[in-house]
Amino acid sequence: LSRDRRRISITVKKAGGVSSYLHALSAPSIEVELLGVGGTFTCFEPGRAVPPMLWVAGGVGITPFLAMYRALRESGQPLPEIELVYACRGDEVALIRELTDVRVRIFDSTSDAEVPGLREVHRRRLGAADFDGHALLDRATVFVCGPEGFMADVRTWLDQLAPSRLRFESFLF
Fold first, then answer.
1. Are 50 and 77 in contact (CB under 8 A)?
2. CA nearest 158: which of 77, 13, 56, 83?
3. pLDDT 10s digits, 123-132
4. What number of H helices and E strands is found in the chain?
5. Is 121 exposed, middle or buried (0-12, 13-18, 19+ CB in 10 A)?
6. CA distances for 7 relative to 4, 15, 54, 112, angstroms
7. Which of 2, 19, 109, 166 is least enclosed, having the fewest CB within 10 Å?
8. What is the per-residue pLDDT across 110-145, written as a single tens digit (0 to 9) for each?
9. What CA–CA distance (Å, rounded) separates 166 from 155?
């Protein structure tokens, strides 16, 4: 979202039918009608402090977390405790380059690409054991976004958490 709040900047990855079409247009700006805008996948609640958070993203599921991060930085308030668990491919790691003050654990079984910054990198898939004894699970709100199967797995792995502390964002409109 631009500073004047009337323009939205997006990055289109050349993959899939619609994304490849948009990428091929390569125009500096394209007007599109937005559908499915809104929802409750936000860390901001009126009258409440932003809680410690565990963000769990799969692939392009990183998108809403980047928006939340930018909004938190722009708020001028101290950044709450945040950890990102990011299951991705090597070419998606660049998407998180701006998250310089967030603890990040990357799970990438597809690449041995160099990961910039201070990141904990695991060259394997994310699994249930990666949440065992996790310190933030005792006090954090957990936000999850990614492909349907990924979110179903994470929901199963975190089934001991109170539903009020788990939030999911779906790409299904």
1. yes
2. 56
3. 999 999 999 9
4. 3, 6
5. middle
6. 7, 24, 29, 36
7. 2
8. 877 677 666 888 999 999 999 998 888 989 999 999
9. 8
